[in-house]
């Protein structure tokens, strides 16, 4: 680590910026968000510069640089490296002022990092001045992960800190209080914009001396690609004390769970319900009643053939707080990855999701006539084992045997398998590809579009 990260306190501080062009303007925009007094040293200033920062900056000629530097916390040289810039650098050195020279890290005492500003929460990313564009890219990724109102939560903690310190004298107990207060239901209230509710909840927890109540978050993990998770899902698995996860959750997503959180597999596979659904309910409730932050992590979306509704009912019936975080359904994620539009103006004006597996096993009792109607797409979840009967019944109800189908296993993942064919040959497609499931069956004219595109691309390549 060549550079030591630190933050300047700019209350009642003065800073100096040399330059009147675009680079200087960018630096002043950053500084204008602070309480610092800003002096811009310039002989010629760009049009609109002074107007943009009217009331926030003092403009002074180069001969007045000395008095400004004499009281400055730091200085920035933001004009091209010429005789005037060299003179500004020399003067700053003479006054012993920490100095940044834009685009010249070798001349800098400090570099200006890429900044994430969330009020009382500020994050800075630096690259020793060697790759500012990379720092900006990293900042954009981190900005997406930080809740917009995290600064409000930090400000609330700052207001309550004296009260907490007075009420909880033991440092370890105080740390535990903050860990629960800043990552549990209180934090969720603040992130939702209910700062009064967050403060009331935090004060109630402080007054009672009790540990925060547990909560269950039923979270959709999406189809498998970790980049398809929602930001809220990512935040919750990184805050959870314990995660109960399904077999369909990918290893890449599991690796994002907080390292010291307990991880409990409760997944089911065809013919193997090693953890009964009722037992899962009991585990979720028991963990929350112990005061833990619980995540029930489910593949796809928890409310689309994921039994999330049953889990929500059971948890809330036990008096435990619960929330649901949607995920990208495997139907949507897998189809998008395959370039397969589930609706299309020319081919499919409706879309139907069905399960291919009945509650008691076997083929479900579906409205086959409705599923056989033209100009629609039918997506079958959990239909690998019953594919032969599904194809037979839909054809018998009137859908053409030549209707295109697609079968997608492990969609969006490295081990994804896609096969295309017709409704009549559906079970044979699955058998030849060695697909065991779970997989999606897509039935309808849109399933022929990717196959046609692949065939055309092949012909063009051969030609």
From TrEMBL:
<keyword id="KW-0169">Cobalamin biosynthesis</keyword>
<dbReference type="InterPro" id="IPR050161">
    <property type="entry name" value="Siro_Cobalamin_biosynth"/>
</dbReference>
<dbReference type="GO" id="GO:0043115">
    <property type="term" value="F:precorrin-2 dehydrogenase activity"/>
</dbReference>
<keyword id="KW-0511">Multifunctional enzyme</keyword>
<dbReference type="InterPro" id="IPR006367">
    <property type="entry name" value="Sirohaem_synthase_N"/>
</dbReference>
<keyword id="KW-0627">Porphyrin biosynthesis</keyword>
<feature type="active site" description="Proton donor">
    <location>
        <position position="268"/>
    </location>
</feature>
<dbReference type="InterPro" id="IPR014777">
    <property type="entry name" value="4pyrrole_Mease_sub1"/>
</dbReference>
<dbReference type="GO" id="GO:0004851">
    <property type="term" value="F:uroporphyrin-III C-methyltransferase activity"/>
</dbReference>
<dbReference type="InterPro" id="IPR012409">
    <property type="entry name" value="Sirohaem_synth"/>
</dbReference>
<dbReference type="GO" id="GO:0032259">
    <property type="term" value="P:methylation"/>
</dbReference>
<dbReference type="InterPro" id="IPR006366">
    <property type="entry name" value="CobA/CysG_C"/>
</dbReference>
<dbReference type="InterPro" id="IPR036291">
    <property type="entry name" value="NAD(P)-bd_dom_sf"/>
</dbReference>
<dbReference type="InterPro" id="IPR035996">
    <property type="entry name" value="4pyrrol_Methylase_sf"/>
</dbReference>
<dbReference type="InterPro" id="IPR037115">
    <property type="entry name" value="Sirohaem_synt_dimer_dom_sf"/>
</dbReference>
<feature type="active site" description="Proton acceptor">
    <location>
        <position position="246"/>
    </location>
</feature>
<dbReference type="GO" id="GO:0009236">
    <property type="term" value="P:cobalamin biosynthetic process"/>
</dbReference>
<comment type="pathway">
    <text>Cofactor biosynthesis; adenosylcobalamin biosynthesis; precorrin-2 from uroporphyrinogen III: step 1/1.</text>
</comment>
<dbReference type="InterPro" id="IPR014776">
    <property type="entry name" value="4pyrrole_Mease_sub2"/>
</dbReference>
<keyword id="KW-0808">Transferase</keyword>
<keyword id="KW-0456">Lyase</keyword>
<keyword id="KW-0560">Oxidoreductase</keyword>
<comment type="pathway">
    <text>Porphyrin-containing compound metabolism; siroheme biosynthesis; precorrin-2 from uroporphyrinogen III: step 1/1.</text>
</comment>
<dbReference type="Pfam" id="PF10414">
    <property type="entry name" value="CysG_dimeriser"/>
</dbReference>
<dbReference type="Pfam" id="PF00590">
    <property type="entry name" value="TP_methylase"/>
</dbReference>
<dbReference type="InterPro" id="IPR019478">
    <property type="entry name" value="Sirohaem_synthase_dimer_dom"/>
</dbReference>
<keyword id="KW-0949">S-adenosyl-L-methionine</keyword>
<keyword id="KW-0489">Methyltransferase</keyword>
<feature type="domain" description="Sirohaem synthase dimerisation">
    <location>
        <begin position="149"/>
        <end position="206"/>
    </location>
</feature>
<feature type="domain" description="Tetrapyrrole methylase">
    <location>
        <begin position="216"/>
        <end position="426"/>
    </location>
</feature>
<keyword id="KW-0520">NAD</keyword>
<dbReference type="GO" id="GO:0051287">
    <property type="term" value="F:NAD binding"/>
</dbReference>
<dbReference type="InterPro" id="IPR000878">
    <property type="entry name" value="4pyrrol_Mease"/>
</dbReference>
<dbReference type="InterPro" id="IPR003043">
    <property type="entry name" value="Uropor_MeTrfase_CS"/>
</dbReference>
<dbReference type="GO" id="GO:0019354">
    <property type="term" value="P:siroheme biosynthetic process"/>
</dbReference>
<dbReference type="GO" id="GO:0051266">
    <property type="term" value="F:sirohydrochlorin ferrochelatase activity"/>
</dbReference>
<dbReference type="Pfam" id="PF13241">
    <property type="entry name" value="NAD_binding_7"/>
</dbReference>
<comment type="similarity">
    <text>Belongs to the precorrin methyltransferase family.</text>
</comment>
<protein>
    <submittedName>
        <fullName>Siroheme synthase</fullName>
    </submittedName>
</protein>
